[in-house]
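Lab manual, section 2.4: Encoding a predicted structure.

Procedure: take the sequence of the chain (306 residues), apply the prediction step described in section 2.3, and record the output as structure tokens. A sample record is shown.
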Amino acid sequence: MTDEHTETGTGWPQPAGPVRPDGPAGEPDPRPEAPDPDELSPLSPQGRPPEDDAPAKGGDESAAGSFAAAVAAGWRRFGSATVMISVLLVLLGFTLAVQLKTTSTDSSLAAARQEDLVRILYDLEARDVRLRQDISTLEESQRQLRSGEQGRQAALQEATRRADELGILAGTLPARGPGLAVRFQAGAKPISAIRVLDAVQELRGAGAEAMQISGGDRASVRIVASTYFLDGENGSLIVDGRPLSGPFTITVIGDPATMRTGLNIPGGVVASVAQDGGNVIVEDREVAEVSALHVPRTLEHARPVG
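Recorded output:
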């Protein structure tokens, strides 16, 4: 044997190449690219298990390194998807939180006791009743105001009409309307104040509403309830202190037919003037105008009753 061979225990030299563990000694492994038998052996080259080659701490570090490498590889593989899912979950949670905050009730009411909630509900119901009563009261006031406004308008119109009527009767307002023109012509005797007063009374009894008397000089005096007649000189008349010369004409507003009948009754004004030699001429007027106004006396002692 030479120095280049080693003893195998059988007297055969050990070749330098790898041999099969189960084959005859010195016979090489016919499989190409076969792994080294020493690498497949569970023992280290020194004949000890791998864990005996290094302390336990080194093994833990190796395992931790392997786990970290695996986690890094998994993170690189799933990192983008995980980030996207995380962002979507955060947005979803924020949206739900905002919606719950918007649609939730008042926190003070949510934290209130049952007695407080009952009191708040009672107060709200009482306020609702008061507001409904106020609405009803205001609507009733509105109806009354509208009715009152119409009533006031009607009352104002009625008062205006009544004032006009009283103004005509009192002689403070002019008037016009259908009526008569009654002209007195003297005969042998002048027209006395009593004959004129009788004519005025008969016209009033026949429904005369406004009258005035005019003289030959075209002076006119309004005839009212307080008007008086006196005989003047040379056949003149004194009417309310104002002298009028003949012939005299009474302009009267009223129903012409009725007033004509009143003047022509037997023994009336027309007959009486005719007996004195005079004449009474009655003419219908479609529009008779009474323009003379009466100046009211200033009252010294009389006062209206309030």
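Check your result against the sample. The CA atoms of residues 40 and 110 lie 74 Å apart.
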